[in-house]
Write a structure and sequence with these properties.
Layout (H helix, E strand, L loop, with lengths): L2 E5 L2 E3 L5 E8 L7 E7 L6 E7 L9 E2 L7 E6 L4 E6 L8 E8 L12 E2 L3 E5 L1
Length: 125
């Protein structure tokens, strides 16, 4: 059973940066993908970035159009940690950010993921 714990959220002014981290425990060979999603007030869950973690590691990360060029997802397999580096933050990036892990391909669709963290709040003013 995979458990995910996020950290690194906080408040920042527009144009600033934050880095979110997600540490996975119980991470097994069946896990093939990890991703970050977010839920903004009054909006539906949105896939932000996804990365392949299994045999397709290095296959190419995926980003939502709204964050391309500003956010970077990376994986430290040894530390079982996925990070999301967020630069040039905008007020519209304000949301609860969730880490997710799954056994399928890395996509920005939530039903590809089985395991979810509790979330970390990001507020941009």
């Amino acid at each position: 059973h995979v458990q995910l714990v996020e950290s690194g959220g906080g408040s920042v002014q527009a144009g600033g940066s934050l880095m979110l981290s997600c540490v996975a425990s119980g991470y097994g060979d069946s896990t093939r993908s990890m991703a970050w999603f977010r839920v903004a007030p009054g909006k539906e869950r949105e896939g932000v970035a996804a990365i392949a973690t299994g045999y397709t590691f290095g296959a190419g990360d995926i980003y939502a159009d709204s964050v391309k060029g500003r956010f970077t997802i990376s994986l430290d397999k040894a530390k079982r940690t996925v990070t999301l580096r967020m630069n040039s933050l905008k007020p519209e990036d304000t949301a609860m950010y969730y880490c997710a892990a799954g056994t399928g391909a890395h996509r920005l669709t939530s039903n590809f993921y089985t395991y979810w963290g509790q979330g970390t709040q990001v507020t941009v003013s």
